[in-house]
Amino acid sequence: MARLTDRPKQGTPPPPRSPFLPPAPRPQLPPAAPALQQRAGAGLVLALLSLITMMLIGNLERAVYVVGVALAVAAVALILTISSLSAAKRDRTRRPRGAVAGVVLGAIGALFSAFALVGFLMFWSQLMQYAHCMNGASTVATQNACQQQFDNSVSTEITLLGGGR
Fold first, then answer.
1. Which of 95, 98, 93 is nearest to 85 (CA)?
2. Most buried among 4, 16, 106, 127, using CB within 10 Å?
3. Which parts pass through the membrane (predicted)?
C-alpha cells in the first residue's frame, strides 16, 4: 500500500486531483511592454471619443461629417487595441490594461457610426429639407409642420425602398 509520503516513479502520471479542490494556479505572465500598454490606452481613449462624438451631433447639416469622423476614429481605436492584444500574445505577456474594453467600445462605436452613416446617406435629401425647414420655423406650429412633412417624406421613401406602392 502506498503512503502519502511515497513519491511516484518516474514516467507515471500524477494521481488525479479532486474536483472539489480549486485548480492549480497557473504561472503568472510578465506584464506587457509599456509601449503596448500605451497603445491599448490610446485605443481605449479613441473608442470613448468616438462614442462621445456620436452623442454630440447637434447640427443636422454637419451630422454626416461628424458620423464619418466618429467611424474613422472607432476604426483606428480597433486597430490599436487589437494590434496591442496580438503583440502581447505573441510576446507571451499579459494583456495590456484596457485593451479588451477598447475593443468592445471601439466595436460598438464603429457599428453605431456605420448604421448612423447609412441612415444619414439614405435619407440625406429628407434630412436637409427638414433642417432648412426648421431653420426657418419661428413658431411651434411651423416646427410641427416641418416634423410632419419630414415624417411623411421618410415614410414615403421607406415604402419606395421596400418595393411597395
1. 95
2. 106
3. 40-57, 63-87, 99-124
Residues 146 and 110 in one domain: no
Q: Give the per-residue pLDDT at 21.
A: 85
Q: How many independent structural domains does the chain possess?
A: 2
User: Distance of alpha carbon 76 from its chain centroid, rounded?
Assistant: 11
What residue type is assigned to position 126 of the chain? Q
pTM for this model (two decimals)? 0.76
Burial profile 45-81: b = 16 or more Cβ within 10 angstroms, e = fewer: bbbbbbbebbeebeeeeebbebbeebbebbbbbbebb
Residue 88 falls within a domain, yes or no?
yes
Same domain flag for 133 and 81: no
Q: For 82-135, how does the pLDDT look when each residue is reduced to its tens digit (9 = 90+)? A: 999 999 999 999 999 999 999 999 999 999 999 999 999 999 999 999 999 999
Q: Rounded to whole angstroms, how far apart are CA atoms 64 and 68?
A: 6
Domain assignment present for residue 28? The answer is no
- Does residue 147 have a pLDDT over 90? yes
Integer-rounded Cα radius of gyration of the chain: 28
pLDDT digits (tens, 9 = 90+) for 49-69: 999 999 988 888 888 899 999
Contact status, residue 106 vs residue 73, Cβ threshold 8 Å: no
